[in-house]
């Protein structure tokens, strides 16, 4: 700020935006072009006016004045010859000259209508001619032909003097007209020179103005944008610590400052992201180690425990066969409990092993015809289907990229559940449908069985969660949990349709090509070695 409280000029201009610079530049350019156009238009108009005056007035007026003088000379010659000889032929040039005199006088009056001085000269000529006509020409022309006119001889001196007056008036008129013509021509030449200079100056000013505009655009817009683009490309190349130096008009500087602010924010977020990534990598390593331990435990539990479980089951069954009926009824009941528990434990361990293998061992994606997979599943379940009298229908099923073993397990669990959880007094009717839904395929498995209450729609997909006791419906409670794991492994979702009430309806989606899922480690070496010991 200056002492008088006003903002310095330089700082004021630095606060101008690109739009303001363009508006001011356009306004100045328009004003300069308007002035140049007005000046050029005036010069052209003035040149045209002088040219018209010279061509249409001054030159024709001088020519007409000369012809008027010629007409008067013809009259004077004819009157003088007729007066000396009395020959009528001399009156012909007089009469023709008189007619031409009237014509030329009328033309001069029209041409010189705006020139008072020239009209005064024309009036002088008319007055002088009128005196000569009255005193000499008409009286001599009225004399009878055949002999010289005495009046012509008597007024010879007067006739000469009056016609000399006419000559003098004509000379003065022509001199003025010639002077006006020369003056107009000189003005025209001067104006043409001015016109050339003006249009030359206009061309130079337009060239200078164009150069100034392009230079202003280069310095005020192109160079700041180029610098901003170069800084942005440097940052995009990975140098996030490279600062952006704002330049140019206020709005471009503001843009540069905003981009630099965004760069600083990105630097902070990248630092935070890098720190989070490092923590995530550490957590992923811990999770991988934990998964390896869990896999080792699952493998040991499903393999190394099989041998003692088989021994327990074998000896209890042997005990049942050898001593069945020899002990009391309570002992037989205890033996039955032991055999049944061992068998159910073996089934549970096998199901748990199958569940742990989903996505780990069964991970061979290939083109799978679900129609063929469903037919093989129905063939493997044919005994149970025939016993239950089930009727199974299905739509044409698509071909997807999936793991064929997992697809078979999916259909086996869904169809098996639909057959198992049937109503006692009604044969199962099972319907399988498939329809394209966006980029996914939606499948439904509908039955007329006992159904699933809405409050248990989520619980049925949790591992080991059963809605019925083993005495009512057999099973380990792992089937739908395995279905959920298979469907999600293939990029889909599975749920119970709670809007369907006449039985149960399981709906799930599958992607034509499942997402890329990293392969898990097959089996830890320690677990493998433990397996070898149990075989």
- Report how far apart the termini are: 94 Å
Question: Could you describe the largest sheet, including whether it forms a barrel?
Answer: 5 strands, mixed
- Unreliable stretches: 1-10, 517-535
Strand element count? 7
Strands in their spatial order, largest beta sheet: 2-4-5-7-6
Q: Any idea what the radius of gyration is?
A: 62 Å
Number of helices: 14
Percent in strands:
5-15%
Mean pLDDT: 80
Structural class comes to alpha+beta
Overall description:
The protein has 535 residues and is an alpha+beta fold. It has helices at 9-14, 18-85, 91-111, 116-142, 150-154, 156-236, 250-304, 306-323, 329-357, 370-380, 382-388, 404-420, 479-489, 525-534; strands spanning 366-369, 391-394, 399-402, 429-437, 440-446, 494-496, 505-510. A hairpin with a 2-residue loop joins strand 4 and strand 5 (440-446). The longest helix has 81 residues, at 156-236. The protein is rod-shaped, with a radius of gyration of 62 Å.
């Amino acid at each position: 700020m200056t002492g008088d409280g006003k903002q310095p000029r330089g700082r004021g201009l630095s606060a101008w935006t690109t739009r303001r610079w363009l508006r001011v530049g356009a306004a100045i350019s328009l004003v300069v072009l308007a002035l140049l156009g007005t000046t050029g238009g005036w010069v052209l108009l003035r040149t045209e006016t002088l040219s018209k005056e010279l061509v249409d007035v001054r030159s024709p007026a001088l020519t007409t004045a000369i012809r008027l003088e010629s007409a008067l000379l013809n009259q004077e010659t004819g009157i003088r010859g007729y007066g000396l000889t009395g020959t009528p032929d001399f009156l012909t040039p007089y009469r023709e000259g008189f007619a031409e005199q009237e014509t030329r006088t009328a033309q001069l009056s029209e041409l010189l209508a705006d020139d008072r001085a020239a009209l005064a000269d024309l009036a002088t000529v008319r007055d002088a001619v009128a005196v000569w006509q009255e005193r000499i020409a008409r009286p001599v022309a009225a004399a009878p032909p055949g002999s010289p006119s005495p009046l012509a001889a008597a007024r010879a001196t007067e006739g000469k003097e009056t016609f000399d007056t006419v000559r003098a008036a004509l000379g003065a008129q022509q001199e003025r007209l010639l002077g006006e013509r020369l003056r107009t021509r000189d003005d025209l030449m001067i104006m043409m020179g001015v016109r050339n200079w003006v249009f030359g100056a206009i061309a130079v000013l337009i060239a200078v103005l164009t150069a100034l505009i392009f230079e202003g655009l280069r310095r005020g817009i192109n160079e700041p944008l180029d610098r901003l683009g170069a800084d942005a490309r440097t940052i995009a190349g990975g140098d996030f610590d490279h600062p952006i130096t704002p330049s140019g008009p206020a709005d471009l500087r503001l843009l540069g400052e905003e981009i630099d602010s965004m760069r600083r924010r990105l630097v902070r977020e990248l630092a935070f992201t890098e720190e989070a990534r490092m923590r995530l990598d550490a957590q992923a390593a811990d999770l991988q180690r934990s998964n390896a331990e869990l896999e080792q435990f699952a493998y040991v539990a499903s393999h190394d425990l099989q041998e003692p479980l088989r021994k327990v089951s074998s000896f209890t069954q042997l005990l049942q066969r050898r001593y069945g009926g020899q002990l009391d009824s309570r002992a037989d009941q205890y033996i039955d409990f032991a055999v049944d528990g061992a068998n159910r434990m073996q089934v549970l361990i096998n199901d748990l092993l199958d569940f742990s293998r989903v996505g780990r061992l069964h991970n061979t994606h290939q083109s799978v015809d679900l129609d063929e997979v469903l037919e093989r599943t129905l063939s493997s379940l044919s005994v149970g289907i025939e016993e239950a009298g089930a009727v199974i229908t299905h739509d044409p099923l698509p071909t997807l990229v999936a793991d064929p073993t997992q697809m078979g397990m999916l259909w086996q669990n869904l169809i098996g559940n639909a057959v198992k959880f049937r109503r006692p007094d009604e044969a199962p009717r099972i319907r399988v449908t498939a329809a394209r839904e966006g980029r996914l395929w939606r499948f439904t498995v509908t039955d007329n069985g006992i159904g699933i209450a809405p409050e248990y729609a989520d619980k049925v997909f949790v591992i080991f969660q059963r809605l019925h006791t083993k005495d009512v419906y057999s099973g380990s409670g792992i089937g739908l949990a395995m279905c959920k794991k298979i469907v999600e492994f293939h990029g889909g979702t599975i749920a119970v349709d709670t809007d369907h009430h006449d039985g149960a309806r399981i709906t799930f989606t599958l992607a034509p090509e499942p997402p890329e899922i990293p392969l898990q480690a097959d089996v830890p070496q320690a677990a493998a070695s433990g397996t070898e010991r149990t075989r």
